[in-house]
């Protein structure tokens, strides 16, 4: 009698493919870095298709990047062994591929990631989201494929294979978790309970990495599990080492008028130096509490600049949402840059358009460019703020005097903006600009201010609060923002490379900003306030 190996010559056949997938992942990261460094932010003198490809490559677009990644991975997927004759081998290959891609996915989620220079942490979230979904689908295809294979094979017991074999049972548990993660990642479900999505997402990542290490045959512990464990350690360190406890200094709100809230934190909430427009994340739990790691922290955009004596936030709080309260302790996890450094360092013409609490993003950037250090560099600087109610303006407080001679601050006030800043809305593009539809436009109603308005709708009395001294500013009531008219002096053909439009607010506003930037061939930095 001759004993044959249980899996024959194919048992180790997937190990080389795993190394190939790891190498592809490594060069994929190199391509991401190279695209951001070598491709200019503004494409010119090329076709529309080329512009799309270049901007997508530079921005880490999931549509382009994942097509390139999977085309490279799946090209040699079926090799040497016939597909129909070795179904089990290729099902195992799917599982190994999903595990190797988990390493790439974990790497992309590190915050801050100093190994991806040129990217701010929000840039790669879409790529992370779709890569996560795709590797979950690969893992599910692996698991469902084996379940079907066992069910159709009369020579094996389905129950024994799926439930009595402990490594296979671990794989089944991973498959259930992957299916749950995909379900909860769908936008309506995620919006309904973001906390459920986040907990499942966090637990699922750990379950996938460590249960799969037990389930996989041949093993994946070296090098993949070790690398993934190292990335988990970095993730934990990023949430603990820079963390610091704080309490609110003050909180200014007006529950009667349901307007924006101004929250003041101690200066130690941020490091001595930080970029304008940075984010911080706040947890209501201490580092010793397991919930600190299991439940989501809450992101806020810092409305201050490093020179301020406090750290201020501008938010719109909701009755059923998370609220910062005075007298309670919170933990600041870390801070992250959100504005391209090229913009902060080289821009000469800057327009900022923000809606509601998006002012927290635009205001520190505006102050950065209006500072004395930028006096000789900046030739055009304008901040346009769209708010629902005149009472929202009270969050400005005293933001100090500005030395810039070109800075302008325009405030458009309306009562017909949707009651939630995160509801999709936009602003008006003139008919000459409307080459593609922009829906959910912001509608501005004329309020009865009588003689307080001049013929252009600008407020001519000083009743609405403190604005910086020396700042050319005006209030507007009863008309939409017209991008063509209100930014008529913004774009200069000779300075397109250093012209930046910065937008922050609901999706509709950012869509309008994107269209304006494309039509005028200028640089765009934008941020959408939505889950």
From TrEMBL:
Domain of life: Eukaryota
Family: Belongs to the ferric reductase (FRE) family. AIM14 subfamily.
GO biological process: reductive iron assimilation
Protein name: Probable metalloreductase AIM14
Transmembrane stretches, start-end: 20-39, 60-79, 99-122, 134-152, 164-184, 196-214, 220-237
Annotated localization: Membrane
Domain FAD-binding: residue ranges: 260-321
SUPFAM superfamilies the record matches: Ferredoxin reductase-like, C-terminal NADP-linked domain (SSF52343)
GO cellular component annotations of the record: plasma membrane
Nucleotidyltransferase keyword on record: no
Domain annotation Ferric reductase NAD binding: ranges: 349-516
GO molecular function: ferric-chelate reductase activity
């Amino acid at each position: 009698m001759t004993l044959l190996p249980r899996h024959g010559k194919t048992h180790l056949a997937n190990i080389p493919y795993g190394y190939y997938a790891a190498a592809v992942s490594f060069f994929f990261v190199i391509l991401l870095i190279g695209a951001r460094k070598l491709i200019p932010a503004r494409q010119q003198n090329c076709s529309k298709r080329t512009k799309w490809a270049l901007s997508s490559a530079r921005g880490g677009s999931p549509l382009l990047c994942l097509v390139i990644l999977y085309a490279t991975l799946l090209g040699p997927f079926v090799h040497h062994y016939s597909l129909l004759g070795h179904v089990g081998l290729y099902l195992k290959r799917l599982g190994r591929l999903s595990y190797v891609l988990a390493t790439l996915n974990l790497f992309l989620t590190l915050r801050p990631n100093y190994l991806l220079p040129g990217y701010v942490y929000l840039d790669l979230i879409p790529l992370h989201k779709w890569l996560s979904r795709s590797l979950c689908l690969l893992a599910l295809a692996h698991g469902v494929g084996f379940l079907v294979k066992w069910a159709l094979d009369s020579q094996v017991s389905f129950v024994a294979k799926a439930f009595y074999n402990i490594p296979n049972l671990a794989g089944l548990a991973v498959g259930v978790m992957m299916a749950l993660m995909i379900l909860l990642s769908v936008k309506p479900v995620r919006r309904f309970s973001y906390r459920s999505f986040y907990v499942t997402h966090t637990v699922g990542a750990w379950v996938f990495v460590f249960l799969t290490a037990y389930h996989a045959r041949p093993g994946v512990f070296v090098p993949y599990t070790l690398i993934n464990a190292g990335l988990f350690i970095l993730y934990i360190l990023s949430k603990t080492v820079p963390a610091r406890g704080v309490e609110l200094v003050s909180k200014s709100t007006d529950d009667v008028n349901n307007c924006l809230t101004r929250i003041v934190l101690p200066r130690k909430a941020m490091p001595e130096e930080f970029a304008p427009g940075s984010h911080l994340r706040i947890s209501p739990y201490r580092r010793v509490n397991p919930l600190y790691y299991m439940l989501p922290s809450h992101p806020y955009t810092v409305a201050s600049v490093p020179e301020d004596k406090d750290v201020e936030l501008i938010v719109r709080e909701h009755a059923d949402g998370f609220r910062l309260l005075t007298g309670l302790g919170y933990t600041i996890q870390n801070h992250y840059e959100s504005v391209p450094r090229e913009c902060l360092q080289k821009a000469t013409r800057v327009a900022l358009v923000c809606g509601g609490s998006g002012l927290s993003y635009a205001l520190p950037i505006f102050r950065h460019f209006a500072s004395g250090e930028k006096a000789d560099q900046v030739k055009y600087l304008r901040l346009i703020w769209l708010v629902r109610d005149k009472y929202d303006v009270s969050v400005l407080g005293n933001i100090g005097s500005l030395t810039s001679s070109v800075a302008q601050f325009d405030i458009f006030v309306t009562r017909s903006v949707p009651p939630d800043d995160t509801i999709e809305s936009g602003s008006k593009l003139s008919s000459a600009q409307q080459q593609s539809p922009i829906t959910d436009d912001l509608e501005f109603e004329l309020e009865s201010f009588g003689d307080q308005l001049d013929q252009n709708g600008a407020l001519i009395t000083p009743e609405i609060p403190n604005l910086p001294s020396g700042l050319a500013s005006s209030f507007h009531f009863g008309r939409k923002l017209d991008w063509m008219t209100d930014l008529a002096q913004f774009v200069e053909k000779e300075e397109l490379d250093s012209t930046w439009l910065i937008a922050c607010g609901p999706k509709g506003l950012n869509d309008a900003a994107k269209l304006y930037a494309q039509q005028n061939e200028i640089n765009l930095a934008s941020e959408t306030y939505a889950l």
